[in-house]
Every structure is written in structure tokens, then in C-alpha cells.
Design goal:
The structure is a single chain. By secondary structure, this protein is of the alpha/beta class. It folds into 2 domains: 11-122 and 199-314, Rossmann fold, CATH 3.40.50; 129-188, Histone, subunit A (Orthogonal Bundle). The protein has 13 helices and 6 strands. It has helices at residues 22-33, 58-63, 80-97, 111-118, 129-142, 144-154, 156-159, 167-180, 208-225, 227-236, 251-258, 264-286, 302-314, and strands spanning 11-16, 37-40, 66-67, 104-108, 199-205, 293-296. The chain has a 6-stranded parallel sheet, sandwiched between helices. Helix 5 packs across helix 6 (144-154). The protein starts with 10 loop residues before the first strand and ends with a helix.
């Protein structure tokens, strides 16, 4: 390990809105610290979803070992609880292999997944299989929009945080409400915004206009890389718009276009718009966490951000 850091640091978190510039900085930090990166991205965990999730390349994974990438089949369901369970297994492996290993570096922007590794998760009731089956049947017969309107009436707070009509999250939120009588959002309370002393959280922030331009450029690059072919390939493999992994920005819009309900140009513009909206929701969530040590990417170079992080880790 090149850099000496405080022995009491257990986890290092680098977060930020989508397209804020986390990847290269995280690779530099991990290489210097001699550690591995855990992706805190709810979609990079799925196999075959490479371009649309801005997944790190195979070459980058050769530079630094990455966990929580290509872990699940797109038809599998994931959750912050399952993610936290995987993290605990990876950490046990990480800490058992080296006498004094460096802390793992967690990088991403999926808010509930970040919350799980920083503050833990609230006790959540188990799913009611019968009701879940009924809600799935209703989704098939009545459409997701009907269920979404139902969620808006009983839990408006959580409905504003959703990434489109996400079938899995819709049904989970409705099931929890009808099982307990409490809105799903109450189980993800932001009131306990405290970070343990052994976890250091850094965030990259950018001017809104700059971030939007970076998002637009990223989407255009994804299209040039072959995102449309990636979606077509996923369909050929038997996955559908109901597959949990494909219920996300970038894939859902192109699936609608492939069905003929949206033209290609409008689909690409919708991806940009929905990505910008997602970034805004991320930033709104992050503002509620006072423990984040922010790095202003509009005024600091990558090297300066790296130096600032290492300075804080050595204190």
C-alpha cells in the first residue's frame, strides 16, 4: 500500500450523481491504497447490462478488483438488504486475507444501497407471497400506471423517488403498506442521518448545467457504443421489459422504441431527460446527509480531489 491512512477507517465511500466523474478518481484511489472497489450501483450488479449502466471495462477491472459487478441474472431481483448481505461476505473475505488490509472503497450513486452500507437498514417486514402474486396479476391486467397512482395516494414521498414505473419497487412498496398500514417511505427515514466514525464519505459535486451536459454527452456516447444493439441482444436472450434488470433508465426507453411506441430520436432524448431527473433525485437525497465531505469538481482537478481525500484519510 503506497499511502498510509488512519487505522480506524473501515469503509471509504465515494458517491455522487450519475456522470459526476466518480470512476477515474476511484480507480486512482484504489490503486494507491491497494484495495478493491465495491460498486454501489443497483444496475451494474446485473450481467449483460454493460453499456447502459456505464459499467467499468474489463481493462479497468484488471487495474483494480471490483465487486458487485455481474453478480446477478437480469431476471433476478435485488434489494439493499441483499446487497448489504453480499457486502458483509466480501468484507469478511477481504479482512481475512491480509493481516492489516486497507478499507474497501465503495463507489456509486444508488441511494438506498449507499444508506445500507453507511447507516444500516431499518427493520423491514417480509413480503407476503399471496399479496405479491395478486399485485403482479393486477400489474398484468391493469398496468403499472394504475398501481403507481395507487402508490401516489398512499405514499407520495416514496413515489417521487422511484426510477420510472419500476414494477419490483412498486409492488414491494404496496405490499409493505397493505401488510403494515405504514408507508414504505417510513422504513427509509432520513432522520437518522448519522455516519459511524469508522466510515468516511466523500462526494463529487458539479454545477447543474455542467452535470446536465456531461449526462447528454454520456448518453450520446452510449448510443455510439451500441446500446441499442445491447438491448436487442438482451431481448434475443429471452429477457423482457418485465425483467428487473431492464427496468431502468436507458433500457426501458429503448424497449418502448423497439415495440414501436416511440421513435428512436425521441427515445434517446427521453433517456437524457430521465437521466437528468434521476440525477436531481440523487442530489436531493445527498443534501440530507450532512456527513458528506464534498469535492467541487468544477474547481478541483482529479489530482486535487485525490489529494484532498488522502489528506482527510490521514488525519
Amino acid at each position: 500500500m503506497v499511502e498510509k491512512i488512519r487505522m480506524d477507517v473501515r469503509r471509504i465511500v465515494l458517491l455522487g450523481a450519475t456522470a459526476s466523474g466518480k470512476t477515474e478518481l476511484s480507480l486512482q484511489l484504489a490503486e494507491e491504497l491497494g484495495t478493491s472497489i465495491v460498486s454501489v450501483d443497483a444496475r451494474q450488479t446485473y450481467k449483460f447490462l454493460d453499456i447502459g449502466t456505464a459499467k467499468v471495462t474489463k481493462e479497468q477491472r484488471k487495474r483494480v478488483p471490483h465487486w458487485n459487478i455481474d453478480e446477478l441474472d437480469p431476471n433476478e431481483r435485488d434489494s439493499p438488504y441483499a446487497f448489504l448481505s453480499r457486502v458483509e461476505s466480501w468484507e469478511a473475505h477481504h479482512w481475512s486475507n491480509i493481516p492489516t488490509p486497507p478499507p474497501l472503497l465503495f463507489v456509486g450513486g444508488s441511494t438506498l444501497y449507499l444508506k445500507s452500507i453507511i447507516m444500516g437498514m431499518d427493520d423491514m417486514p417480509k413480503a407476503n407471497p399471496t399479496r405479491v402474486a395478486e399485485l403482479n396479476q393486477r400489474a398484468d391486467e391493469e398496468g403499472l400506471e394504475t398501481l403507481f397512482k395507487e402508490l401516489q395516494s398512499i405514499d407520495p414521498e416514496y413515489s417521487t423517488k422511484m426510477d420510472g414505473f419500476n414494477r419490483q419497487r412498486l409492488i414491494r412498496a404496496l405490499d409493505v403498506y397493505y401488510e403494515t398500514g405504514k408507508p414504505f417511505s417510513t422504513y427509509h427515514s432520513q432522520e437518522k442521518s448519522q455516519c459511524p466514525n469508522d466510515i468516511k464519505v466523500f462526494g463529487i459535486k458539479r454545477d447543474r448545467k455542467d452535470l446536465h451536459e456531461r449526462i447528454n454527452i454520456r448518453v450520446d456516447h452510449m448510443i455510439k457504443q451500441g446500446l441499442e444493439d445491447e438491448v436487442t441482444s438482451l431481448l434475443a436472450m429471452g429477457y423482457t421489459q418485465d425483467s428487473p434488470g431492464l427496468q431502468t433508465v436507458g433500457y426501458s426507453e429503448l424497449l418502448v422504441a423497439i415495440d414501436g411506441a416511440l421513435n428512436r430520436t425521441d427515445a434517446i432524448e427521453k433517456i437524457k431527460t430521465n437521466t437528468r431527473r434521476y440525477a436531481k433525485r440523487q442530489e436531493t437525497w445527498f443534501r440530507k446527509w450532512p456527513f458528506i465531505q464534498w469535492l467541487d469538481a468544477d474547481h478541483l482537478s482529479q489530482g486535487q480531489m485525490y489529494n484532498e481525500i488522502m489528506k482527510q484519510l490521514r488525519h
